[in-house]
Amino acid sequence: MTAPARLILVHKQRTSARIRFLRFADGIAAPQPFPKLAQVLDDGEEGEGAAVVAHPAMLVSQVAKRLGLSPGVIELESEFSAFVDTPDGVSRVYLGQFTSMDPPFEVSEKAHANFIAITEARDLSPTELELLRRAYACIME
Predict the structure, then answer these.
(1) Helix (H, G, I), strand (E, B) or coil at 65
(2) Category of 25 on φ-ψ map: left (φ > 0), alpha (ψ -120 to 50) or beta
(3) Model confidence over 66-98: pLDDT tens digits?
(4) Alpha helices of the chain — where are they, by DSSP H?
């Protein structure tokens, strides 16, 4: 069984390499949060039924529309992929980067979200912390 895919959104400042993640009121995942019992699977572990997934461009388009943006404002980070085991099945997680020079703060305000550094994520669930750790490592490589 496959659960809906999720997208983590990040902005990397081009001049300073400062990395900030978009945090919604209910977590870091868009378009919906992870359930409480979700657990990140180990690298290379995809779980049953995770091999067939929808193209991530659809997810990016959906999230961009929800945020009031054109899809070109968010680019997929092709090197990042993670799988999370949820009660609904395995959910694939993608990483989307904002392409703008500065974080789109007006977008975060409209979405009742804010941009945070990874050090400001201590109160997130262990699942979300692990995903942020992996995303940060991917971006910094």
Answers:
(1) helix
(2) alpha
(3) 999 987 899 999 999 999 999 989 999 999 999
(4) 56-67, 105-110, 126-140
Q: Which of 96, 114, 98 is nearest to 106 (CA)?
A: 114
CATH code at 58?
Answer: 3.90.79
Q: How far apart are CA 35 and CA 27, in angstroms?
A: 10
- Which residue, chain included where needed, has tokens 């262990």? 126
CA angle 76/81/86 to nearest 5° reads 120
Residues 95-128: tens digit of each pLDDT: 999 999 999 999 889 889 999 999 999 999 999 9
In a domain, 1, yes or no: no
Say whether 6 sits in a helix, a strand or coil: strand
132 within domain boundaries? yes
